[in-house]
Amino acid sequence: MVTMRRVELAADLLYKQKLIRGFLHLADGQEAVPAGMEAAISFKDSIIQSYRDHTTFIGRGGTVKEIMAELLGRVDGASKGLGGSMHLYKKENNFYGGIGIVGTHIPLGAGIGLAHMYRKDGHVSFTLYGDGAANQGQVYEAYNMAALWDLPVVFTIENNQFGMGTSARRASKITEFYTRGDYIPGVWVDGMDALAVKSASAFAKQHALQHGPIILEMDTYRYHGHSISDPGSTYRTRDEIQGVRRARDPIEQIRTLLLENSFADSGELKKLESQIKAQVAEEVEEAKRSPPPPLCYLWKFVYKKGWGAKLRPVELGRGWIQLPP
Ligand SMILES: Cc1ncc(C[n+]2csc(CCOP(=O)(O)OP(=O)(O)O)c2C)c(N)n1
């Protein structure tokens, strides 16, 4: 969780230095969700989610360099510098993104559940989405198919209380999202408590394998604005944000637990945190040294090899683009 937090703060800084451009959605405050979930499942289980994907990517075994290079548009990025912040993937660890269009990945998550069932591999699809996305029609289509076929899908709502600048209360008739599955059971989870997330995820995985879909509503909070261009303080008060930090911060909760039970002393934790800080800083520098993708990548991953598309070279003022072999 400390690595996740550091990555988000480093990305914020790089954006302000104008080194990262375009979209950037940060998830600091929400770290307990990926941390707790990954503690209960394996990389053979699948995860798919929307654009707020950096912390999930780290949970899936992605490196800081892969994220930072992607955000900087460099070739060593998770998507070879072609996708940016919203499009992190890790196919080998069953992380299917990183999807920018709100809600569209939810039926895909049900489809991934169908793949797990079809292959009889004993694994499940964790399909993550926000409280804003939870009101979309396609969610209910995905619920219907998943329940009809008893698909092993854990519909996991990261309720961070806001969809852009709109609070869940202003956008949803019923804000108890875990109750909105009708024929699908749901569980409310303290999404700021990594251990609660772990227990709930372990339970949900077993349930999904034995009985079909289940909903987990993770009650969480994002500290940053919706995206980097949103100061995040016009639709909520700074006192509210500070109040959550003081009372529910996921990292501080674990720190208190470790200290109160003498699992670690504060010196050890400080040392660990400064090691992580140095590691993140080092990987940021490595990412900066990564070159931009070659121009031929404009085409390389668009058409399947041998598909026979004829492409016309275009002069972009930076020399002629090489056609893919
Ligand atoms: C189909 C579609 N409509 C609108 C948008 C613009 N948009 C981007 S994020 C967002 C809010 C989504 O909120 P939520 O699902 O709660 O996720 P969170 O940002 O809180 O993680 C909207 C409306 C979009 N990307 N796609």
Topology, please?
Blueprint: H1 2-16, H2 32-40, E1 46-50, H3 54-59, H4 64-71, E2 95-99, H5 105-119, E3 125-130, H6 137-148, E4 153-159, E5 162-163, E6 166-167, H7 168-171, E7 186-190, H8 194-211, E8 214-219, H9 238-248, H10 250-260, H11 266-289, H12 297-300
Parallel strand pairs: 1-2, 1-3, 3-4, 4-8, 7-8
Antiparallel strand pairs: 5-6
Bound molecules: thiamine diphosphate.
Describe this structure in words.
By secondary structure, the protein is α/β, with parallel strands linked by helices. It contains twelve helices and eight strands. A six-stranded parallel beta sheet has the order 2-1-3-4-8-7, sandwiched between helices. Strand 5 and strand 6 form a beta hairpin. The chain binds thiamine diphosphate. Thiamine diphosphate binds at residues 52, 100-102, 129-133, 160, 162-164, 226. Pfam families: E1_dh (PF00676).
Largest sheet: 6 strands, parallel
Structural class: alpha/beta
Q: Specify the overall morphology.
A: globular
* Order of the strands making up the biggest sheet: 2-1-3-4-8-7
- For the record, the CATH architecture of the largest domain stands as 3-Layer(aba) Sandwich
- Cα(first) to Cα(last) distance is 42 Å
DSSP strand count: 8
Order of helices and strands: HHEHHEHEHEEEHEHEHHHH
Number of domain modules: 2
Cofactor: thiamine diphosphate
Keywords: Oxidoreductase, Thiamine pyrophosphate
Protein name: Dehydrogenase E1 component domain-containing protein
Pfam family, one: E1_dh
